[in-house]
Amino acid sequence: MNRLLRIEIRKLKNSASFWVLSGLYALMFVFAVYTIQNFTFDFNFNGNTINGGVRQFMVFPSVWQNMAWLASFFRILLAIIVITSIGNEYMFRTFRQGIINGMSRTEFVLGKVLAILLFSLSAMVLIFVVGASIGLANSSSASRFFDHFEYIPAIGLATLGYLLFAAVLVFFLKKSALSIALLLAYSYVIEPLLAWRLDGIGRYLPLKVFDRLNTFPYKDSVPGMNWEAPLVYPEDVAVSVVWIGLFVLVLLACTRKMEIR
Amino acid sequence: MKDKNILEVNKLSKRYGSIRALTDFDMRLQSGQIVGLLGPNGSGKTTALSILLGVNPANSGSYSWFGKSGDVASVRRRIGAVLEAPAFYPYMSGEENLKIVADIKQADYSEIGALLETVELSEWRKYKFSQYSLGMKQRLAIAAALLGNPEVLILDEPTNGLDPKGIAEIREIILKIGKQGKTILLASHLLDEVQKICTHVHILRKGTTLYSGAVSEMLQGDKCFELKATDPQKLQEALEKIDWVKSVRKEGELFVATIAHESYVDEFSTKLSQSGLVLTHFAERKGNLEKEFLKLLNQSES
Questions:
Q1: What integer pLDDT is reported at residue B288 of this predicted model?
Q2: Quick one: which H or E segment has residue B217?
């Protein structure tokens, strides 16, 4: 386990594109958060005038959901890291050489899964740190610090699922550019269409489920609306865990017998 | 130790669609042997090796390394192998790349310094792999293969694409390693290379084995002699009179005569001296693997 992670970390820490992309992820997220909190709004809703500043939502407990939702915009950058790091193994033929050198196929896949786990955890920690600092700055007290904290592990789970989905794509397609294109096409076109056609079960499609773990926080945020705050539903968590398990199994199974060139 | 079975291959076959890349491939590798896997491009050498190294599943047949059958990762850590072009992370230095290999093989990082010394890359260890010349890449691959002090070394066309200086350097390294008593499997289409380095040879063509055995045995059979005499005319007549001299041809000043079997060698010289010839040159010509190889290829063609 340790050895597999050490190998993956060495590959990453020497890679300029890893530092650029992960730096971009962190910077863009932090920049977005600190910019958006200064926004104000003034609009009419059902005859009520609603106005105020975004800052008023950057308080406990709604800050966690807001952070999770904002962070999900930048996850494509993490997916690009995952996809290129696996696509490169095919391109450089280091996947093949790694097996020749004495890795098993299972170990190779597990190394990548561990790296993805590390990305998801790091993203979660970043979101937590940014959320905590901005929440503490804007809230009058920290007494509700842990209210709705479930959004933080939920965004971790959603990121893990999304990145594993990207890994499945590139393990099959073997090419980075193709996989990124397909990931985008799937996220924005194919799955929404599928979900629409598969009325009923469409809501269980993987990215739909992961997205529900960090939905747009309007219900919780807009004052004067008496809607129930969206929570992290246990059903979505369970379905996400099933998808994640399935992705790992698919990765292990599909690499088991294939010819590695 | 000498007879320890390193590798046993039993009827491996691989098809790509209708093309039979490898048919009933059998091979044995024993400790200390230096075996050449010889064959023209596309004859199945790399297919065979990639099956034996777990990257390409066979359609049928079996193999076992060190008595353990099939695709076992821990067994591969006892093998150092370079298949085709060296594969490393181009954006990483030679040294960092070797650290990854060391982690995979569960070898100690402390071996890296000495190995880089062996392949003469110490000065380049901090440079990126992508900046290396082809020869340097090939040498790094050999260093990687030697990590973890493997019992067997598998090299696939290690001098491919190199300039003469690079070829000489690589051969020198291989010979140096061979002298340390390591078992080596060298796939090559260069006969000269195999003849110079290997003790045994396994010849493949279109996925089937044409010959397998010791190099020395392969070169036996016909014996070739170079002769020169003060009277060339008389020499030629004398040679043509002996019925077990299979052929006589002239190469400049020299006559080259092939005799049917080595048991005639003693008789050969007495016969010639009896005919009153004054020989100024009489030497056995060493068998030539290239000729034997081409002969085998031609036989299988017809």
A1: 63
A2: helix B215-219
A48 within domain boundaries? no
- A104: closest CA of chain B, how far (Å): 5
Strand partners, B14: B22
Tell me, yes or no, if B83 comes closer than 8 A to chain A by beta carbon: yes
pLDDT in tens, A190-231: 999 998 888 888 889 999 999 988 877 655 545 555 445 556
What's the mean pLDDT when you consider all of chain B?
A: 86
What pLDDT is stored for residue B2 in this prediction? 46
Distance CA B212, CA B229 (A): 39
CATH level 3 topology of B220-301? Alpha-Beta Plaits (3.30.70)
- CATH 1.20.120.920 for the B5-218 domain, yes or no: no
The residue length of chain A stands at 261
Domain count across chain A: 1
Give the one of B55, B85, B91 whose C-beta lies nearest to A259's C-beta. B55
- CA angle, B9 then B12 then B13, to 5°: 165
Domain that holds residue A77: 2-9+59-256
> Residue A33 falls within a domain, yes or no?
no
Does the distance separating the beta carbons of B96 and A14 come in below 8 Å? yes
* A250 band by pLDDT with thresholds 50, 70 and 90: very high
Neighbours of B110 (CB within 10 A): 8
Distance CA A253, CA A249 (A): 6
- Examine residue A44 and state whether it is found in any structural domain, yes or no: no
Q: What is the pTM of this model?
A: 0.84
DSSP B287: P
pLDDT tens-place string over residues A170-191: 999 999 999 999 999 999 999 9
ipTM value for the complex:
0.89
CB contact under 8 A, A93 and B87: yes
The pLDDT confidence band at residue A38, using thresholds 50, 70 and 90, is confident
Count of A–B CB contacts within 8 Å? 77
Confirm or reject contact between B102 and chain A (CB < 8 A): no
B74 contacts in A (CB within 8 Å)? 102
Chain B residues whose CB is inside 8 A of the A107 CB are 73
The ranges of chain B annotated as CATH 3.30.70.980 are 220-301
**Domain-located, residue A145:** yes
CA distance, residue A2 to nearest chain B CA (Å)? 10
Beta-carbon separation of B104 and A11 below 8 A:
no
